[in-house]
Write a structure and sequence with these properties.
By secondary structure, this protein is α+β, with helices and mostly antiparallel strands. The protein has one domain: Alpha-Beta Plaits (2-Layer Sandwich). It is about 35% helix and about 30% strand. The chain is built from 3 helices and 4 strands; from the N terminus they run ααβββαβ. Strands 1, 2, 3 and 4 form a 4-stranded mixed beta sheet that branches. The N and C termini lie far apart (about 70 Å).
Length: about 120
């Protein structure tokens, strides 16, 4: 009987890389997004140890906070694109992982001009 209780209480751990991949793909599928770019914290390695990717994941308790840096397409309406990225990432991460997303921070690094 004890083994069945322990088996029912087994937990699942999801890597931050999985959450980052879901976030990256969701952002790139959003209309108006040109690219997912490196975090401003990486410039010259002045502010961080190691390398931060373009998606920063912070897990505390049972909540995730996600930060992502983007380049948008020329002519895109920045507030609308950012809101779409935020809601898309929150919905997809929660649906695919079951982890509650408390916040999605979007940083627009630049505008991509296509020739």
């Amino acid at each position: 009987m004890e083994k069945t209780k322990k088996a029912q209480l087994a937990s699942l751990k999801i890597s931050k890389d999985v959450i980052a991949t879901i976030s990256r793909v969701t952002a790139l599928e959003t209309s108006g997004v040109a690219a997912v770019t490196e975090s401003h914290k990486n410039i010259g390695g002045l502010f961080s140890k190691g390398t931060l990717g373009p998606v920063d994941i912070s897990l505390a308790d049972d909540f995730a906070e996600i930060g992502i840096c983007l380049d948008l397409e020329f002519g895109a309406k920045i507030p609308e694109v950012c809101a779409a990225v935020q809601s898309g990432i929150k919905e997809n991460v929660q649906a695919m992982t079951g982890i509650v997303v408390s916040k999605v921070n979007v940083t627009v690094r630049g505008i991509a001009i296509r020739n």
